[in-house]
Amino acid sequence: MRFRKRVKVFPGFHLNLSKSGISSTLGVNGASVNFTKKGSYLNTGIPGTGLYDRKKIGTKQNSNFTDSSENIEHKSNSTQEIVGEIKSAETDKLTSANLIELKETLEEVYKDRIELNQEIIQTKKEIKSAKTIRIVAFIFVVGLFVKAFKNKVLDKEEYLRDLENQLENSFINIDVEFDKSFEEKYNGLLNSYNELLTTEVIWDITSSIQQDMKTTRSAASSVVTRKPVKFKFDNIDIIKSTYPAFHFENKNGGDLYIYPAFIIFTTSDNKFALIDIKDLELTFSQQRFLEEEKIPSDTKIIDKTWAKVNKNGSPDKRFKGNYEIPIVGYGKLEIKTSFGLNELYSFSSFEKSGQFSETFLEYKKAI
């Protein structure tokens, strides 16, 4: 009988947030990565010998912010994939340099969980088969053989419990500690996110293309493809944290899990990247949108136009049945990095999404 007695304790990730910035440590005594406002450092040494080395890694990048939009956008009626796709690069290109160590640890946890799940499935099949054989043995065989088959089932069930216990403990714990001043900033962000969750509709903008307004006789300068998504609090299955992540669902790439100091970008096939919040470039603006579907209750109508318009904005009377279309003001949030993250969301409430964007940028500036 084989036993997988090798419960692995993965190093924790400790975040300390103070008015001097974020100091974060991943690892154990002798090998750790420390993240601070001044940079990230790899610490290595041999415990008990006095031998120690500290080396700076990674770089800090700035982000830009604008709050204006003059274009009018419109929903695409095409059901097929169109050009102008808005999508992030492959996950292997997205990780911030100072988070590679944490990413490698998370990859190890994922690999361990996959192996454990496969072993659990196989063991359950073996238990089912062993129980069937035990029943047959009970009917046709007596004595020591029946006892042997019974013990085999018990051994496999014990082995299964051992595997399930290992799976339950195969995760990384992210511990977050705030000092009072920093906690106030994070609570402000937390409150604005809770308010953002009450937005009636959130869309993932998956593509955007410019259109010839003269040819189409439309007031919209661009056409977008959008898909409704959900935002919530959540953690990926390999992380336990004192503060659940802000989970942004994504329809054509990886979901975003925003933790106090970094973002995890993860796809449905468990490929992922880790992005330092300092590397984010956030742009918030008003999205002027020609809305021909039901207008959400938390959306304001800011103007009107016609399905077919002249250059001066008046209705083109050459088109029979020309109808009026409301122009609404949505919130538009673009999330990028210089190394490939590229996501765009639209919110039915301009006010709530604007407040969240503002408090997020204030929080990011404090890091």
Task: Tell me what the structure shows.
- This protein has 367 residues and is α+β, with helices and mostly antiparallel strands.
- The protein has two domains: 13-57; 72-96 and 176-366, no CATH class.
- It is 28% helix and 34% strand.
- The chain contains five helices and 19 strands.
- The strands form three sheets. A seven-stranded mixed β-sheet has the order 5-4-3-2-1-7-11. Strands 6-9-8-19-18-16 form a six-stranded mixed beta barrel. Strands 10-12-13-14-15 form a five-stranded antiparallel β-sheet, with helices on one face.
- Helix 1 (100-140) packs antiparallel against helix 2 (144-168) and helix 3 (180-196) packs antiparallel against helix 5 (350-366).
- The longest helix has 41 residues, at 100-140.
- Residues 99-166 form a coiled coil.
- This is DUF4236 domain-containing protein.
- Keywords: Coiled coil.
- It comes from Flavobacterium crassostreae.
- Residues 1-54 form the DUF4236 domain.
Name the descriptors.
7-stranded mixed beta sheet; single chain; 6-stranded mixed barrel; DUF4236 domain-containing protein; 5 helices; DUF4236; disordered N terminus; coiled coil; alpha+beta
Secondary structure category: alpha+beta
Placed side by side, the strands forming the largest sheet appear as 5-4-3-2-1-7-11
Could you tell me the radius of gyration in angstroms? 27 Å
> What is the overall pLDDT average?
81
Low-confidence stretches: 1-7, 28-35, 41-47, 57-65
Biggest sheet overview: 7 strands, mixed
Strand content: 25-35%
Approximately how much helix is present in the residues?
Answer: 25-40%
Order of helices and strands: EEEEEEHHEHEHEEEEEEEEEEEH
Distance between the termini: 53 Å
Number of structural domains: 2
Number of helices, where a helix is a run of at least 4 consecutive DSSP H or I residues: 5
InterPro entries: DUF4236
Keywords: Coiled coil
Domain DUF4236: 1-54
Pfam families: DUF4236 (PF14020)
